[in-house]
Specification:
It comes from Suilimivivens aceti. By secondary structure, this protein is α/β, with parallel strands linked by helices. Helices cover about 35% and strands about 15% of the residues. The protein has helices at about 10-20, 60-65, 85-90, 105-120, 120-130, 155-165, 190-195, 215-220, 240-250, 280-285, 300-320; strands at about 1-5, 25-30, 50, 70-75, 95, 145-150, 170-175, 185-190, 200-205, 225-230, 250-255, 290. The longest helix is centred in the C-terminal third of the chain and has 19 residues, at about 300-320. The protein starts with a strand and ends in a 10-residue tail after the last helix. Bound molecules: nicotinamide-adenine-dinucleotide.
């Protein structure tokens, strides 16, 4: 089986090359371009393509892949909001993903963002490097004894519930389905109760039509003053202009974002020489209580190994014509 691997970074090649020794039937060609309608035709002669969170796996891309004889898209990630799965089904292209590589990797990053915002670690780090040992602007609050509100308690949300519980926090959660593994220490309540009753709100639901702009000015107004908001899920769960309005209203003690609406053209690119014009991200970064990371929640050694292993197993499952729980329906 021949796979064209889009949007290759050095760490992708390292983890997939290490895993390939266990999959002698698979050959990978790595390219730097991301998958989109301009680059899809490069897949001619390949059985499958491997794509990632900022790839464009929309209607036009899928039509081109189909015309070039590609019938498998291997998403090396959990989320698939960038895939037109209805179009893929219509064209007979199978989409497979890695739903469960390391929920703890993302949950630990969510807590890292929450702590960094709460204790202004980014500011403290820079102050001390400048020989400024004063504490002005660094005061946070104890998480112990406070309430965490987790929206979406699937794999990553459940890991975040366990971490918050370990910090001595009361844990409230909102999800359409109650996770039975959490029943001893999580209280399921309505979305409004999570919003109004939590000192730390962390988003772990997928991006769907129902969750698009779940955090908007109306939901922000329901939050308690001095809340910390963390988003490691998908950028469009939060309406950025409304978030900026909420920050200007002094609603938040801190906002930690691993994902944000404008991220697609930034993700994993070095744009440090550019002037980011008309950028709401730049506006967000102008606030002292906002910390943004570049979609790195998944980025641990364990997660990268698991992603490579499962992606290659997916390719073999496809080659064997077997069904899989990793299929995107
Ligand atoms: P999951 O499918 O295990 O859990 C998602 C949970 O959200 C489910 O329990 C589901 O019932 C719930 N949900 C769905 N719609 C909801 C709604 N409207 N309101 C409340 N809850 C709702 O998924 P997961 O593995 O925990 O991943 C969650 C998300 O994290 C992914 O969709 C992806 O977008 C994101 N993610 C980010 C990174 C990163 O690097 N930052 C890495 C992996 C995944």
């Amino acid at each position: 089986m021949k796979i064209l691997f889009y949007d290759t970074k050095s760490y992708d090649k390292e983890s997939f090359d290490a895993a390939l020794s266990r999959f002698p039937e698979i050959e990978i060609e790595y390219i730097k371009y991301d998958l989109d309608p301009r680059t899809a035709s490069l897949a001619e002669g390949f059985d499958a393509v491997c794509a990632f969170v900022s790839s464009n796996v929309g209607e036009q891309t899928l039509e081109i892949l189909h015309s070039k004889g590609v019938s498998l898209v291997l998403m090396r990630c959990a989320g698939f909001n960038n895939v037109d799965s209805a179009k893929a089904t219509e064209l007979g292209i199978r989409i497979m993903r890695v739903p469960n590589y390391s929920p703890e990797a993302v949950a630990e990053h969510a807590m890292a963002l929450a702590l960094a915002c709460n204790r202004r670690l980014y500011k403290a780090y820079n102050k001390v490097r400048e020989n400024d040992f004063s504490l002005a602007g660094l005061m946070g609050f104890n998480f112990h004894g406070k309430t965490a509100g987790i929206i979406g308690t699937g794999k990553i949300g459940a890991a975040m519930c366990r971490i918050c519980n370990g910090f001595g926090m009361k844990v409230l959660a909102y999800d359409m389905y109650q996770n039975p593994d959490l029943k001893d220490f999580v209280t399921y309540v309505s979305l409004d109760e999570v919003l109004s009753g939590s000192n730390l709100i962390s988003l772990h639901c997928p991006l769907t039509d129902d969750t698009y702009h779940l955090i908007n000015i109306e939901t922000i107004k329901k939050m308690m003053d001095g809340v910390i908001l963390v988003n490691t899920s998908r950028g469009a769960l939060v309406k950025t202009d409304d978030l900026i309005e909420g920050i200007r209203m002094h609603k938040f003690a801190g906002v930690g974002l691993d994902v944000y609406e404008e991220e697609t053209k930034n993700v994993f690119e070095d744009r440090s020489d550019e002037i980011l014009e008309h950028s709401t991200t730049a506006r967000l970064l102008s606030f002292p209580n906002v910390m943004i990371t570049s979609h790195q929640g998944f980025f641990t050694r364990e997660a990268m190994e698991a992603i490579a292993e499962t992606t290659l197993e997916n390719a073999l499952t496809y080659a064997a014509g077997k069904e899989s729980k990793n299929d995107v329906k």
